[in-house]
Amino acid sequence: MKLSINYKSILAASLLTVALLSSCTSSQSGATSTPVSNLAKMSAIASTAVAEVTDTTTFTELIWADEFDYSGAPDPAKWGYDTGGHGWGNNELQHYTDSPANASVADGLLTITARKESTQGRDYSSARLVTKGKGDFLYGRFEIRAKLPTGRGTWPAIWMLPTDWAYGGWPKSGEIDIMEHVGYDQNKVHVTVHTEAYNHGKGTQKGNSKVIPTASSEFHNYRVDWTPYAIRGYIDNSQVFEFINDGKGFATWPFDKRFHLLLNIAVGGDWGGSQGVDPSVYPQSMEIDYVRVYKMNEQ
User: Fold this and answer.
1) Which of these is catalytic: 92, 143, 180, 287?
2) Of 175, 218, 242, 287, which residue is the catalytic one?
3) What is the pLDDT of residue 54?
């Protein structure tokens, strides 16, 4: 990561400090002080100096990818499965399986499908793919091209969880949501982070959303750029979210440890099912064209 600094602006800020001190000294000695209008101009220059310290990190080296240019089960060298049906901490209704009926690759696409069917005591089945132990990353660019499901009760997500949980259980070790969408609020796509200080349990999570009118009918690019300085979220290369490291420790910034990727469709749950579930819309699928991870360039 490289910080780009405008030294002329820093010099201007220093000159402002000198001017302010001189003004105070002159006023105390009875001399004429610097006009207020000039001080305001110099204050604006100083503010610009701070703003022009920027993160100019680049990401050019592709270090991990799945283009889904094969057929059958997702590549076992890159993907594992989270399985089970215990609600996943959100009172979700599905049982996650490793069945090809719920996750398969064909025609250049990974398709994750949620189905209305009795599975291990649950009324719905789905899949949750993970790269844990097969793709674990500290910083980088994460880009996924996907078309989302639709319908009340669907809750697709493209996201990241800590691999080592170094700071403790959720939310202490963090969560990065590259894309979330709930079917009752069609086309509104969310980018969010969760930490001990900022999480949905407290209603303090940090995030933003954007309406994508064709979220479920066309493919779109969902991306996060993660550096030691900030996490930034993009949809179709347009920035919609920024979360800056405040330097106050892991309670606000646990994002200095390894994370892995997850792809899934949940059914119902505290958020996805907050306006009910329409069983008539199933099966519903999330189609993924590719997943690409780029290394953060050291500068």
Assistant:
1) 180
2) 175
3) 55
Q: In this structure, how many other beta carbons lie within 10 angstroms of the beta carbon of residue 159?
A: 22
Q: Which pLDDT value is given to residue 15?
A: 39
What is the topology classification, in CATH, of domain 59-296? Jelly Rolls (2.60.120)
Tokens of 189: 């796509």
Structure tokens at 14: 């220093």
How many Å apart are CA 132 and CA 291, to the nearest integer?
Answer: 15
Q: Give the chain as a 3 state SS string.
A: CCEECCHHHHHHHHHHHHHHHHHHHHHHHCCCCCCHHHHHHHHHHHHHHHHCCEECCCEEEEEEEECCCCCECCCCCCCEECCECCCCCCCECEEECCCCCCEEEECCEEEEEEEEEEECCEEEEECEEECCCCCEECCEEEEEEEECCCCCCEEEEEEEEECCCCCCCCCCCCEEEEEECCHHHCCEEEEEEECCCCCCCCCCCEEEEEECCCCCCCCEEEEEEECCCEEEEEECCEEEEEEECCCCCCCCCCCCCCEEEEEEEEEECCCCCCCCCCHHHCCEEEEEEEEEEEEECCC
Consecutive sets of 10 residues in the chain, 299 residues long: mean pLDDT of each? 39 39 41 41 36 69 98 98 96 98 98 98 98 98 98 98 98 98 98 97 95 98 97 98 97 98 98 97 98 91
Residue 122 has φ and ψ, to the nearest 5°, of: -110, 155
- Residue 180 annotated among the catalytic residues of the structure: yes
Structural domain spans, the chain: 3-55, 59-296
Residue 287 falls in the annotated catalytic set: no
Residues whose CB falls within 8 Å of the CB of residue 169, separated by 6 or more in sequence, listed in order = none
Give the tokens for residue 190: 């969310």
pLDDT the model gives residue 56? 77
Q: How many CA atoms lie within 13 A of 203 on its CB side?
A: 0
